[in-house]
Amino acid sequence: MTKLMEIRHASKIFGQKTITGKQKQSTVALNDFTMTVQEAPPTITAVVGESGSGKTTLVRLLLGLTSPTSGEVLYRGTDIRKLSKDAQIQFLRDVQTIMQDPYEVYNPFYKVDHVLKVPIEKFKLAKSPAEAQTLMEESLSAVGLRPDDTLGRHPHQLSGGQRQRIMVARALLIRPRLIIADEPVSMVDASLRATILESLRKLHDDFGISMLYITHDLTTAYQISRNIIVLYRGDVAEVGDVDLVVRQPLHPYTQLLIESIPVIDLSQTWKKEKLDDESQSVASVPSQGCRFANRCPHVMDICRQQAPPLYRTDEGRAVSCFLYKENPVLGNRGLDEVLEATQGTVASAAD
Amino acid sequence: MVNTVDDIQTASKRIDTAPVLTVNGLSVYYHTSRGAVKAVENVSFDIRAHERLGLVGESGSGKSTIALALLRMIKPPGRIETGEVILDGTDLVRLSEEQMRSMRLNKIALVAQGAMNSLNPVVKIKPQLIDGMKDHDIGLNDKQMDARVYELLDSVGLRKDVADMYPHELSGGMKQRVCIAIAISLRPKLIIADEPTSALDVVVQRQVMDTLLKVQEDLGASILLIGHDMGLMAQVADRVGIMYAGEFAEVSQSADLFSDPLHPYSQLLINSLPSIEHKGTLKGIPGLPPSLLDRPSGCAFRQRCPFAFDRCEAEEPPLREIRPNRLVSCHLY
After folding, report:
1. pLDDT digits (tens, 9 = 90+) for B176-235
2. B275 touches chain A (CB under 8 A)
3. Residue B269 lies inside a defined structural domain of this protein
4. Is B86 part of a structural domain of the chain?
5. Which domains are present in chain A?
6. In this complex, is the C-beta atom of B293 within 8 Å of any C-beta atom belonging to chain A?
7. CATH number at residue B81
8. Which of residues 235-254 of B touch A (CB under 8 A)?
9. Which of B207, B258, B268 shows the shortest C-beta gap to A266?
10. C-beta of residue B136 within 8 angstroms of C-beta of residue B102
11. How far is CA B116 from CA A276, B174, B177, B204, in A?
């Protein structure tokens, strides 16, 4: 297994400075996060959390758009800030991203061909214009678009779903090793959402591309990913095999998230129990201890004194909660131990 | 939230009462240089007292246009072409601008999609709550007004001291609750909630939704809930109208609709939803909605419909009650 990307003990702290330069207070967006994305076998890992959980910070760190306050982000073993020119070009090719908003990524003055042509030119993917054309048509067909209906049009002539699928086609064209999809379907209509997710899954299955699927929507995460990482205020709450985490959540926060999803099956209604009320606790993130303590129905004294480590409750799952403290603490390889274990289980199950 | 026998009875009671709002033959067009975009075409429905009616559809299906039309807030180039909107015996379409102004907030109120961004960032919460009440001149003195503000905050589950805070001191969910408090400040008959929680996280969404439903029950108001989250609709609405290309495809009680959708579009839409229960291939609906500039003849859904036959092209299916409380516009039935 070659390590494509690694994040080692990365933290990102945003300090708010006042105009006079005084340090006011700091926000920990991501706290001591360690994880490896292997080149092979390809996996789909979902990163789930609500606003402020650190998921976008994680994306920005991986893409090198922001640097960690402490810790490292490595691409094939080298800090992404210190890549040689060639390695940097390789990095830009290997790691592609699909952003949330299918409207803002396009320049309205260019035809949509532009977003496909630029990477072909930059990475010299085609030897002739005819080959470039074939390449574009192939990748559009692979995501279920008809090239005739798509090429030569301006962005405003296409629907949000079509535009987002063109972005998937663009990512495919470059043949990356990893696609980071940051909320790719949150702005797309329900009927098209399924189509886009299916084309992402197809890229993974047919072309062996790994994927980090960043979302706040547990339902779609459950559908397309193998592993899931649940973030809460910059910390990992629960990590592991998606079937374990979603079907039998252990962390009280994951349980709350899953209970809160409105489902169309009317035999399962929202419980009418009194919810923890965010409005009653304005200062809801404690400065020490478990970050979920103020909202947690099972809070104990220890939760307010120290932050819980990740306890390995199952072969393919770890939970950061003192309720499970009889289990062994995850070793210093962190999330990787669990994530690799789930690959093992799935692979052996397939045999 | 239908979960016990009692609840089912109250839900059907809600449905059997007299209408608060009746919409007849409403059409709204946006006039562009390329012709009229028929955003809402000949739509009729009613909302009964205490009822929660949901409107779902893809973007461009006309659901938000209906909300704006009921409030008479369609801006040019949009225009209400035909139809009547009868609220509590008054046809809103015929009112003068000034008369309509007094109806808004008073009889019919809106909780908008990004409502939390509609609060004035440099004004504290209290004056923003009072603003509408003052404008409608409900005749309270300052002291009574203060008391009313605290009462409103309390009813949406916010503490008193929120009154003296600025919007940036509140979380998204709290701001949305302030907007609910503003919407109910004059005890309207009908609350229109246009995607009231779509910008919020699931946990907060559920809290805000619970708040909205609680105040609706306390007031005895009806609610028109607009959104595209089918799960939320299933949990909240008594009846749901599924819109497609500016018309209703189906209007059914939500329990029936989600267990046994009748219109092919409803079926495909419900089947396309990813489930948290079991994994499977994700099936989208192939094709795109028709252009509203140039509507196809016959049924608007026929080009994407797996069951389309010749009659679908020749004549437009009317919305008919094919079973009790189930209106479907499809030639299959």
Report:
1. 999 999 999 999 999 999 988 877 888 888 888 989 999 999 999 999 999 888 888 998
2. yes
3. yes
4. yes
5. 3-16+26-109+178-263+289-350 (3.40.50.300)
6. no
7. 3.40.50.300
8. 235-236, 254
9. B258
10. yes
11. 21, 8, 9, 13
